[in-house]
Design a protein that fits this description.
This protein is an alpha+beta fold. It has two domains: 142 residues, Jelly Rolls (Sandwich); 329 residues, Zn peptidases (Aminopeptidase). 24% of the residues lie in helices and 23% in strands. It contains 15 helices and 22 strands. Strand 7 and strand 8 form a beta hairpin.
């Protein structure tokens, strides 16, 4: 039975307490990265019956009974093998799923060539269990059956759990024609449709989860942000990305840090007041570095500590507070003094994965970034879903994983790719700053060979984007690559506007630009199609919802942005050393 909202609140306690580690979060969710809990493909011996050849061959049947738990708001993927040299004439899927609310579930079957069909998509409401045989012939008829077939079961809502008890495939093969003498090739009468892409290659798949009300705006820190982090980590592991933080053996995709504030302790750093809306002016986009919070560690760089002190000192003067003096250089607070004087808000985490390059420059990296957080719930209790800001950029980055896996398998990634979903961007680029100051494998300034930051890609029409590609006031190499990548698209963007210079210091890429790295920022654009204007009218409001993205362009802008970035990655990863 579905739990009432009050009971559901009790069932989902705070997953990441202020003094908890990311590993404790994973244990609380039952999602310590193992193949059974994170959506990784799992294979095991199964019963296979292959008949001898006859004029009417008997079906080939494969089954398994894993008795595998389906994580609440998580996914599992299982695989079965069908023998090579067979083609699909008809195909049936047998399912036995025990679940207390089948309306939570989406079930997808994917063939060896990537073609897929959705068998169940949150159908059935409060009914229990999914048991029966599903005819999936239309999606696969005529295709080669030999190879790995994957069943993905996703739980898309909280409060109910279930178990994949068993599943199987029953294949009726198409008889192969007798060999004939070769003939002259003829032109095909109709074009062949490409195989459908995996659902994870569609950013709208991920947007539906990351911007859902269940995640309550993904504030830093919050239960919703923790759930979003787990979702990203599960997808990274499922698509073969190496953990970005391998030294953290229990939570290797997480880089955790303590988020702190000087408010209301007389240090400045007043938090956002998201209940009063936003000016809409580009110069007020996001936050300056450490504007609403910061991190403190004993080993933090002196430059970062000085920057935090300067930010706090300025805010104290603005608030009529005499700045507090410390024993550091120029009267700054030392790290120890800042720890004592500030308040621990909670523990948050960047989520980091790595796709290893295959060429001689694999020790160099292209870093892809998107902030995963948003502003959460305002003081009036309104949830800010943050569909565009920045579930959109985070979803585009997730949708790149299948293509990155393919490029790696084909040996087409000279440089490695590091993917980073940052925390606490809305509070002052804090997660990106922590990563820069505490580099993980592939993210040191010496290893980075370029950064792409994706922030708010979903709104307005789908014929334009805005780009920012300056380092030290000059165009960097991305200025040419973004034009080349756009020209390679099936349907290029009409306009790549250069109208977001005001964002230069107010987006995650700035923490690397300030160190001389070549950064490209991609953004949906401002209100005037030809460039310039204001931010979209739902920016930092509870109305930043998925339906506004669909109303503007049907979600196609996110798909087109994904294609553009795929081309950018190929070009940047394989460019010459002096390019």
């Amino acid at each position: 039975m579905r739990l009432p909202p009050a009971a559901l609140d009790l069932k989902l306690p705070r997953l990441l307490a202020r003094d908890a580690t990311a590993a404790e979060l994973l244990r609380a969710r039952g999602a310590v990265p193992t193949s059974a809990a994170t959506g990784a493909t799992i294979s095991q011996p199964v019963d296979v019956f292959t008949p001898s050849a006859t004029e009417t061959p008997a079906p080939i049947v494969v089954r398994e009974a894993p008795e595998l738990a389906i994580p609440d708001r998580g996914s599992i993927t299982r695989s079965l093998e069908l023998p090579a040299g067979t083609k699909v004439s008809s195909l049936s899927l047998e399912l036995d799923i025990a679940h207390t609310w089948r309306g939570d579930l989406r079930v997808t079957l994917t063939g060896p060539d990537g073609a897929h069909t959705t068998v169940l998509s949150r159908d059935g409401g409060s009914a229990d269990d999914v048991r029966g045989t599903f005819d999936v012939s239309e999606a696969f008829r005529g295709a080669d059956a030999g190879g790995r077939w994957e069943l993905t079961v996703e739980d898309l809502a909280g409060g109910d759990v279930g178990t994949l008890r068993s599943w199987g495939l029953s294949l009726q093969t198409a008889s192969a024609p007798a060999p004939t003498e070769p003939t002259e090739p003829t032109e095909p009468t109709e074009p062949v449709e490409p195989a459908p892409r995996h659902p994870d290659a569609d950013p709208l798949t991920h947007l539906a989860y990351l911007a859902s009300p269940d995640l309550e705006g993904r504030g830093s820190p919050s239960d919703g942000y923790d759930l979003a982090s787990l979702y990203v980590a599960e997808k990274l592991e499922a698509w073969g990305a190496l953990p970005g933080n391998p030294d953290n053996t229990e939570a290797p995709y997480f880089q955790s840090f303590e988020f702190r504030s000087g408010w209301p302790l007389g240090l400045g750093g007043e938090p956002h007041d998201h209940g009063i809306g936003h000016s809409g002016r580009p110069e007020d986009f996001s936050s300056e570095q450490f504007e609403h919070g910061f991190y403190v560690t004993p080993d933090m760089p002196a430059e970062t500590l000085a920057q935090i002190n300067a930010q706090l000192r300025e805010q104290q003067w603005e608030q009529g507070i005499r700045p507090r003096s410390g024993s550091g250089p120029n009267g700054d607070l030392t790290a120890e003094e800042l720890l004592e004087a500030s308040r621990a808000v909670g523990t948050v985490q960047n989520v980091v994965g790595r796709i290893e390059g295959t060429g001689p420059n694999k020790d160099q990296t292209i870093v892809l970034m998107a902030h995963l957080d948003h502003v959460g719930v305002d003081w009036r209790g309104n949830v800010h879903p943050g569909a565009d800001d920045n579930a959109s950029g985070s979803s585009v980055m997730l949708s790149l994983l299948p293509r990155l896996q393919q490029l790696q398998a084909e040996g087409k990634l000279d440089r490695s790719i590091v993917l980073v979903w940052t925390a606490a961007e809305e509070e002052g680029l804090v997660g990106a700053s922590y990563l820069r100051d505490h580099p993980l494998p592939g993210t040191s300034l010496e290893e980075i060979d370029g950064v792409i930051n994706m922030d708010m890609l979903g709104r307005w029409d789908d014929e334009r984007l805005s780009v920012l590609h300056t380092t030290g006031g000059r165009n960097n190499y991305w200025s040419e690559l973004v034009e080349e990548a756009n020209s390679r698209m099936d349907n290029p963007f009409d306009r790549l506007n250069r109208d977001i210079g005001a964002f230069a210091g107010r987006q995650d890429g700035a923490v690397f630009t300030n160190k001389g790295e070549d950064v490209l920022m991609l953004f949906e654009g401002l209100s005037r199609p030809e460039g310039g204007g204001s931010l979209n009218p739902d920016y930092h409001l509870p109305t930043d919802t998925i339906d506004r993205i669909y109303a503007d362009n049907g979600g196609e802008k996110l798909r087109r942005a994904t294609e553009l970035i795929e081309h950018l990655i190929e070009l940047a990863s394989n460019r010459s050393a002096d390019g």
